[in-house]
Amino acid sequence: MSNCLFCNIAAGEIPSSKVYEDELCLAFYDIDPQAPTHFLVIPKAHISSVSEINEENGAIVAHIFQVIAQETKKLGLDSYRVVSNIGAQAGQSVFHLHFHVLAGRDMTWPPG
Ligand code: AMP
Ligand code: ZN
Q1: pLDDT tens sequence across 16-43
Q2: Separation of alpha carbons 60 and 80, rounded Å
Q3: Taking all residues of the chain, what is their mean pLDDT, rounded to a whole number?
Q4: Is 98 a catalytic residue?
């Protein structure tokens, strides 16, 4: 989608600070980090949020979680939080599926 920020980042049209990339997904550091380590993992194909995951496109989610397990190990992170906001009330501001990976500070529960 040409008017989607994360589609443009996935296509390399908008620069990002890359953590990892393959043909299916991209991981890059959040521009406004909420923890000492804060990166996002997105599918390259446009999916607007978790609410649009289905039988046909759902394999990407397992792949993204494999990438999260791999990259957090590479970064030496043994405790971290994975978050996906769905809808404006939950805090979603970019409507392209993404998983936040946050680490490096104490976290509260429940999240605010
Ligand atoms: P959410 O609010 O859950 O939809 O998450 C969107 C995230 O994208 C926020 O944490 C933003 O800081 C982050 N973000 C917005 N624009 C950029 C960008 N150009 N590069 C990296 N992260 C971004
Ligand atoms: Zn998109």
Answers
A1: 999 999 999 999 999 999 999 999 999 9
A2: 21
A3: 98
A4: yes
pTM: 0.98
Cross-strand bridge partners of residue 99: 41
> Tokens 């792949």 label which residue?
63
Å from CA of 68 to ligand 1 middle: 17
Which residues sit with their C-beta closer than 6 Å to ligand 1? 5, 16, 30-32, 85, 91-94
Q: Which two tokens stand for residue 95?
A: 């409507």
Report how far residue 96's alpha carbon sits from residue 85's, in angstroms, rounded to the nearest whole number.
11
For 28, the 3-state DSSP assignment is strand
Q: Is the distance from CB of 27 to CB of 71 less than 8 angstroms?
A: yes
